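Forum > Structural Biology > Help requests

Title: Can anyone predict the 3D structure of NUDIX domain protein?

Hi all, first post here. I have the sequence for NUDIX domain protein but no way to get a structure on my laptop. I'd be grateful if someone could post the structure tokens.
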Amino acid sequence: MTFSGAKLALFLGQKIVVILRDDKPDIPYPGHWDLPGGGREQEESPEVCALRETEEEIGLQLAPSDLVWSRRYSRPRGYVWFFVSHQPAGLVSDIRLGSEGQRWALMDPREYCEHPLAVPHFAEQLSGYLSEARA
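Reply #1:
Sure, ran it for you. Structure tokens for NUDIX domain protein below:
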């Protein structure tokens, strides 16, 4: 099935990795807190897309087996996949910001869901995951 991109809610311990988007008027949600991920390249799978983008954006190499939850949802440009991975907090020392974004940070996942500068549809997807994980 066709999709346009993939995002990853990457938990390092109890916090998630977020990236402050560049503040450029020609990109969606400039200056907002984003999650690792992005647009599909060629014929890559949703998992490969999310993992490639994560490595490009924050320098962490994860395996498909590290993805523990996923959902596909519809956006104006097509379907997008949302993944979750839980990794040890110690991986924070391996993070290296790539060429996109102003900086990265760790954020409490509930704080992200309520943050006024969170990308709204990613906050919604994360909130759905958190609700399911509690059940």
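The mean pLDDT is 95. Residues 5-134 form a domain with the Nucleoside Triphosphate Pyrophosphohydrolase fold (CATH 3.90.79.10).
Shout if anything looks off.
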